[in-house]
Structures are given as C-alpha cells and as structure tokens.
Write a structure and sequence with these properties.
2 copies of one chain form a homodimer. The first copy, chain A, has 493 residues and is α/β, with parallel strands linked by helices. Chain A has 3 domains: 1-132, Rossmann fold; 152-293, Rossmann fold (3-Layer(aba) Sandwich); 296-480, Rossmann fold (3-Layer(aba) Sandwich), CATH 3.40.50. Helices cover 45% and strands 18% of the residues of chain A. The two termini of chain A are 29 Å apart. Chains A and B meet through α2, α5, α8, α11 and α14 of A and α2, α5, α8, α11 and α14 of B.
C-alpha cells in the first residue's frame, strides 16, 4: 500500500497553504476545521502576508517551515498551485489535498493547468487528492480539513464522495446522528488519486468496518472492479452511482467532467464485485450505517414482529418488492407464541402482538423469531419511541390541572416508559449478539435512522417500515453474495 | 350530507362512556385527550363507580346526563356496547365513536356482536365510527378523542386511516411538524361508516384543503370511486393502498378482516377517479402536505436550480424515473443567467449556481426558471439549512479560542446567515405566489419535510432530492388529471 496515503489520512503534521484569519475565506474555514477539533499533530499556516493566524505562527511559504510536514492542504487560487507543488518538492512533502477549484471543470485553461500539476506531482513523487475537492477527514486522529468544521466521533464507517456537497451533507448527518466516522475522502477531479485507490486503502485499514461511496463516474472500471472484489471479501462496500438518467448523465459530465458510462454496466460491475448498490444518498447512509454495526444476514428470509396490523402490512409489501421472503410460521413457533399472545393472535409472519403489551413480551417474541432457523433477519415494528407519546400525555394532564408538574414528577411518570424502552433496546442487542442476526427496530418517531449503544452492541432503528426493509434487503444481498463466494471457493478447491 | 357527521366531527357536547381517572386505561387516555386541549364544548364523563373524574361530575349512564349530547365516545368492553347504544337511543344521541375492540377482528363471537350493534344503531338512527378505532380529531374546534393526546394546530389537511397505529403516527408527525390538521378519522372496522363516507364529508367541508388516506381495503369500490371522482374535482386526495403483496394482503385480511382485492384494480380505480396514489406512509404525508399548501402544477415539466452538481444529478435521475421532464434551457434564459453566473456555468437544466453565491442570486435564478413558460414546477437544491453549518463553525472557533462566545456575538455571526435564509424562503414564497407554480426547496438538514410560514404563503422544504421529486411527480400527475378532466368537459359541450 502507498505509504503516502498514511501521510494523507494520518498526518503527524499539516500545513495549510492560503491560511487566513478572515472568516468566509476557504483558507480560514479549512484551518478552523483543523484547529477546532482535537487534532494533536502540528499545524502550520502558510500565508506570506501575516505573522500569525488563529494564534499560530504563519510562514511565508512551505519551504520556510522549520519542521517536517506530512501533508499540505492547498486553499489558494488555481494558478498558484504549480508553485506550491514546487515548494512541496523542495520541502520533501509527499501528500497534498488540493481544495482549490478552477481546473478541468471550468474548461480549456483550467484543463491545461490540471495537466501541468499532474505532471509536476508525478515528477516530484507527490500524491495529491483533488483538485476541486471539499476536503478530507480522519476521525480516529480527530483530523479534518473541510470548509465546514464537523467533528464526527471516531467509528467504523468510511465515506468516499465524488461530490463535495453531497459528501459534506452525508458527513454532517454522520456527525449529528453519532454514527461514527473512520475516514472521509472527497475525491474532486481525481486527477491522480481515484476513488478506487482510496477504496483499496480503506480496505487495508482495520478501523474501517464498511465503506459508503457516492460515484458519478469511474474511469478505469476494470481496475476498480478488481479492487472492489478484494475489499468486499473483507468488509461491506455500499455505493450509489448517479447519472443513471439521460438528464442526470449529462449533468454529471458537466459537473466533474467524468464520463458516466452506461448505468447498466455499473450495476453489473457492482454485482459482480460484491458492492451493495443503492439508489439515493439517504439509502446510502442508512444501509452503510447498518452494514457498519450489524451482523450480515446469510439469506433473504425475514421474520417480522409488529405492534398493530398496519405496519406489518406495509413491511410485508415492501419485503416482497425487495425480493425478501417471509417464511410461514412453523407449528413449533405458533405453539410457543400461543402461550404469550391473546387467543385471537394472527398466527402469521408478520406476527402482530396486538395490544400494548410489555417489553418482556416483545423480547420473547423477537427471541423466538430470531432463533428460528428459517429466517436470518428480524424487523420489529412500533415498539420504540413511545416515550414521546407519554410526554404528550403529561403535557395534556398539565393543561387539565392548570399547573406545570415538577421535573421529579414527570421523570417518575416517564421512568417506567424510558426503562421499558431501554430494556427493549438492550434486549434486542443481546438477542442480536447471541443469534448473530440483524434486528432492525422501526420507531414511532420521525427522526429517521438512530443508533443506540448498549452493553451488547449497537441497535439500529429507523422511522418507517420501508427504511427497515431497504436495509435488510441490501444486507441480505451482500450476505448471499458472500455465501456464493464461499461456494465458489469451495468448488475451486 | 348526513348532519350526524357534523355532530361527530363538530360536536358541541360529548360524553365519554367508560371515563376513568386511572392513567393507562383507555377511558382515561381518551378523556385526557379531550380535556387537555382547548375544546370549548361540554364534556360528560360516564362511569357508574365514580362521582367525579378529572375534575368533572361523572354520570352513572348516558341517560342521566341532564343536557343534550351530540357525540358519545365508547371506551368500554365490547359486550357492553349494545347497552350503550340503547342508552344513546333513549337519550336521542345520533353520533358515536366506538373505540372498543373485540368485534369482527377477534372472530366468531366478536363478529356476532358487531352485527348486533350495527342493527341496533340502524334501528335507532345512530351513526357510529368504528368499532376498533383509535379515534377521531377535529382541530378547528380543538377536539380530539384519541388514546394519545396530540393537539395539532388547525389547518387544511384531513386524514382518513384504516389503521389506528399508522394513523396516530401520521397525526403525531402532523402535530410535531406544524403541518396543520383539519380532521382525522380512524375508521376501524367500518361496520357502518366507511372510508368513502368520510371522504364525501371531507369533500364538502371548506376547511379541508386536501385529504390523505391510508387504505387496506374498500368494500364498495364502485361507490367509493364515484365519491372520489367528485371530491378530487375540488381538492387533492392522496392515498396509499397497502396489501399489494401476497404476504401483505394476507396480513391485511387478518388485520381488519377486509378483502384486499387486486392491487392493480385499486391502482386503476385511483387513476380514473383522480386519486394520487403513493407507496409509503412518509410519501403519503409529504405529498398530502404539499398538496395542501402548494399550487398544483399543470404539467410534468420541471426546472431545477442546484447549489453544486451532485444534487442536480440525483434530482435529474429521480425526475426521469418519475416521468418528469427537464426541458432544455432556451437561449433567452441562458442569456439572462449569463449575466448572473460565472462564465463557466453549465448552461443546462439543472442549473448549477456553483459557488456560495448570495440569496439575491438564488432568487433571480429561481425567478427566471419559474417565469419560464416551459416548466410548471421548480426544485431548488441546497440553498436552505446552511445556518447549521455556521453554528458548527462558531463552535469550532470557540474551541480554538478556548472560551465560549456570548449569545450576542453568536447571534450577530448567525444573523447574516439567518437573514439570508429568511430572505430566500420569503422570496421563494413570493415567486411561488406570483407564478402560481410550486417551488420545493431541498435543505441540507436531516429533518425531512418542513413548512415555513411567510407573508406570501407557505414554503415546503425536504431533506433530499428524491423527496422533492416524489412530491413534484405526484402533484404533476394530479395537475395533468385535472387538465384532462377540463378537456373532457369541453368536448362534452
């Protein structure tokens, strides 16, 4: 593996060329993002017009920095990049992030300039990402060089994005939802460093548990497929390929200048190399998060528990559309559930637990389904998120009483509900761990994907049955792919 | 129109049979939901074992209430409903909500009991909704009889749900998102009052601007289609029909006992009667909310403005999948935008406004697109929700400084951003009003559908391009349907 990528994503020291103390300027935003987190490496602002920037000594050029520099981040106008690269060569800097735009994406002169810097980098042995990228982040060393400080918690999910705006949006969501990030790479124009190169690198890093990719176009499909095939043996890779429509493909061409290629070709390549293909950025985030934190199911057979009929019907509809199968309940499970549920329970998968019930009932049903040999994933609908309902109830009671209750009283009312939900979530995590089957909860709240941490691992919940089914559908596809690979390997012996 | 429906949804007085002061009991939850809002009608708890409940005098039976009662809400065990209905007859009560379950949905004895109460109601002229419903709400009189107090603001959206759990979840979302509710009706087993009857009633009410329906099954399809055909002339009706899969259809049968019928038959019936058909509950809410607040486009042609290429590509892909058309920009608009955008702008629809830009630039581009004859809807991507990014920036600055900034300083930093966004939203509302074309904004935040109120009307924003396209796709279909109806009427003359 190219050790310059270690310098790029795990730099011990970084210089920001074009650093500025004027907010709104890119050189200020980038430097703020680096300094505003807990990065412990050395940071050197480079700006000839200033002595200090954000409290740090500023250097006239990279050459003037008296210490080693692992990574140079460029936020200066395009025409000054060639000189900056010469400085890198002189200083012995081997890795760079080129935030600057004004290259191939603006046409003629920009394209010429891009060729020039590619050659310069090649000659001096400099590896750079970009240009025209919105930056990178490496959460395990609390390092980010982004136009908007974000600071996600360290975790297992890595993101490669060929669009800066989409990439940053996904990154913000990862931070706000506490999903946990390993590495983020916005690849920009991909002059030298391609999405596939980054994927190969992420495949080699132990802290990366899954990779999410936003792809507009891949130049060397064969090389990329080879890399992907290797990486997906070790960890899930989830990708969205945009530009599948005529209008979208034209828009992609004018965006990063990439040839979009036929969508069907990408789909076939993804399938063959084990990449989970999704259709939208929110699917990308949901599926990649689940792939990071949950066991991978070995088949497409699903058991569903629902609190009320409606959700079960929607989930069953969505399962059929996604190629998931709901096996018929065997007599043994019917008998087991007969002892737990009211006499008129539906005796079908989805299992409707009807009334309000208690968490131990939910967990018994989930446990019975999860231990059932015929299914490899579980979806549990409508059992989380009821504390919001309890809060609404307390608020109504207060209006009737004409007075606000004390915090203690509210907590004591909420306590049972909160305890019940905690118990449910923790129980789900335990069953998930014991059976090694993913259990997705569908909550009543509108917050979308949520992660809960328990002593038995993470539980993923979403807001709607369709989100749960999408996740299970994609994880099952990957699980089946892996089983197929194993079978192939077996036959090859 | 049946005036008993006015008594049901606009009661001047209501009795709660089975009222209780023990939280968790249905009779307590329902009474709390009625009293905990601002309902100005009279409320009479009925419970023979108590003198007062939640501060109100309690009556041994309906017959003992000394004043007129418009509506009786039943939260007592099923076997006592026949007696309750006799009390209604004696008291001259003409409308009832039967929350109680334990009828057809539990099989033999329950089905017999359901037939019995249907006959009793028919004889005494009592109209009831349910049984096995989670209740109703009528926000313009601040009335709700629900198992979870909710209290949504009054507004234009009405909801009919054949699933209590799904209905309540939608209702909570309407309340939390301040979408504004007219009427909610959970129809339960639909012993006498059917979803179609409620739809007809909602069609006649001026405060209802659009109707959202969750449908598992319709018994009299021909009658329903006739009603729908009339209502959709006046206002949009959005529906989800679940049970489209084999597994889902079986689940639906065991849920409310409804015959699901062929999904294709429903789809054909919806199309012919002008009902907008969606696939998931979140689509139902998003599309119905947009239909309540936005102008209906007359065609499927869309203009898109994007802040950065990625979103534009995704939106273009989704448009093509949804049957929406992105017309090519005419020379006149290219010329107009040439004067506003950098020289290398993409000169395509989606229009990429590239850099950060200012709100007046966004609005000029949106205005140019909205006034363009060739399109009837506008999608604006990535221009709302940046204040979250500014907040992250301030937080990073604080960490660098090692001190927390004052609220004043933060506000002054945020002020420009907030003002810019307000200006953008208000400008969008103005253009929307002037051109009578819907403009959907796609924000950077993960909150899903959001409504902003301005002096020029409401602006709908969502979190993802796909949500925006789904809304525009469905509204366009309805607009084309209405245009077709006009053409038919013209030919008939």
């Amino acid at each position: 593996m190219d050790t310059r990528l270690d310098k790029m994503f795990f730099p011990k020291s970084v210089a920001v060329v074009g650093a500025s103390d004027i907010p709104v300027k890119w050189g200020n935003l980038i430097l703020t993002s680096i300094l505003g987190w807990r990065y412990e490496g050395k940071v050197f602002p480079v700006n000839a017009k200033k002595d200090t920037i954000l409290g740090l000594k500023s250097y006239p050029s990279l050459r003037d920095i008296p210490e080693d520099v692992d990574l140079a981040v460029f936020a200066i106008p395009a025409q000054f990049i060639p000189e900056g690269f010469r400085d890198c060569a002189a200083k012995g800097i081997k890795a760079a992030v080129v935030i600057s735009s004004g290259f191939r994406e603006i046409g003629g002169e920009g394209a010429r300039l891009e060729k020039e810097i590619a050659e310069a980098a090649h000659e001096s042995g400099l590896l750079f990402i970009g240009p025209n990228t919105m930056g990178i982040a490496s959460a395990h060393i609390a390092f980010e060089a982004l136009p908007t400080p974000t600071g996600p918690e360290p975790g297992g999910l890595a993101v490669i994005s060929q669009s800066g705006n989409i990439g940053l949006q996904i990154l913000k969501w990862i931070a706000h939802k506490n999903i946990g990030l390993a590495i983020y790479a916005g690849t920009g124009n991909e002059t030298v460093l391609k999405a596939g190169d980054i994927l190969e690198y992420l495949g080699s890093r132990d802290e990366v548990k899954a990779v999410a990719m936003y792809i507009e176009g891949i130049d060397d499909g064969r090389k990329f497929a080879g890399i992907a095939h290797e990486v997906t043996r070790k960890k899930p890779v989830v990708a969205i390929k945009t530009g599948r429509s005529q209008a979208g493909s034209k828009a992609a061409q004018s965006h990063t200048g990439s040839m979009a290629g036929s969508y069907a070709t990408y789909t076939a390549m993804f399938r063959q190399s084990g990449i989970i293909q999704v259709r939208t950025p929110s699917e990308l985030l949901n599926v990649a998060t689940a792939a990071t934190h949950l066991p991978i199911p070995r088949s497409n057979r699903v058991g569903i528990m629902t609190m009320g009929g409606g959700w079960g019907i929607i989930a069953a509809d969505e399962c059929e559309d996604s190629g998931l199968v709901l096996p018929r309940l065997p007599e043994s499970i019917i008998k087991e559930l007969d002892s737990l549920l009211p006499a008129y329970w539906n005796r079908r998968n989805p299992v409707d637990v009807v009334g309000e019930g208690d968490p131990s009932l939910y967990l018994k049903v989930i446990d019975a389904l999860a231990r059932w040999d015929e299914v490899d994933s579980i979806i549990a609908l409508g059992i989380i998120g009821r504390s919001g309902y309890v809060e609404d109830f307390i608020a109504a009671q207060e209006r009737i009483d004409g007075k606000l209750y004390s915090r203690e009283l509210k907590l004591s009312i909420l306590k049972d509900q909160i305890r019940a939900e905690d118990q449910t979530i923790s129980g789900i995590a335990k069953i998930q761990k014991e059976t090694n089957k993913p259990i997705i909860a569908v909550a009543l709240t509108e917050g979308g994907l949520t992660l809960a941490d328990t002593s038995h691992g993470r539980v993923v919940s979403v807001s709607t049955p369709e989100e749960a089914v999408t996740i299970v559908g994609h994880l099952s596809w990957y699980g089946s792919y892996l089983e197929g690979q194993k079978a192939d390997a077996f036959q090859a012996v």
